[in-house]
User: What shape does this take?
Amino acid sequence: MARFPAHPERRPAVVTGASSGIGRAVALALAAAGHPVVLGARRLSRLEALAAEIAAGGGVAHPLRLDLSEPESVDAFAKEGLQAMEVELLVSAAGRNLPDSATSPAPAQFAEMMAVNLVGVQRLVGALLGPMVERGRGDLVFVTSEVVRLPRVRNSAYVASKWGLHGYARTLQMELEGTGVRASIVQPGQTLTEMGSDWDPAATTEVLDEWVRWGVARHDHFLRPGAVAAAVMAAVQAPPGTQFSLVEVEPQAPAAPRRRPASPAKPDTEGSS
Assistant: This one.
């Protein structure tokens, strides 16, 4: 029977998109569990504030600027991250989403989102994966989206990038089999983050109406980032010899008010003898 070595107690981690939303929640969860964290995102001031918050709680965090759309930034981030610690975990939580139209293409915007959501991720994995394979252990976690299952109108670039990321992660799962390194996909449904906060309000209303029309917005409840972080933690904390290949996380619909059963009608006793 195959034997698998136990995870080290402290597993240094890299988290992208750590300045807000899901990435921030994941970084806090990892730090709370005792793992040192390299924080990556474009907004360095936010990362520094998060690193201070983690340090105040007794954790260790290294904030480093990362722009996944810039190859030089990805390479520098990976180099500094590996110098700071022996990376055991990579959680890819960064993402870019802008409304678009497949019938009115905007090539530059499409390319930007592909760079952030897919191409930059592949480059970062390539820089960090080698030492994990050499050690015979490690975890890669890719936060994708339910759009892989339920494509959304007016979201062609985002959908294409997340489909690509899903396919890339699936291929990694096959190629990493037997290396001791796990690749997991966490696929969240609608989540309350800052994504979309920079959209034009009129475009936002139009897009949301289209999503409702196509049946991809079934109810108005959103996941909180911590719920997705909990799924990520389940994947990286799974016992050695166990792999969470795909974790789908969906918000529950708000509970409908329970109807009280109608009271039985009282018998009509008038006129009885």
Observations:
- Helices lie at 21-32, 44-56, 71-84, 107-135, 156-175, 201-213, 225-237.
- The mean pLDDT is 89.
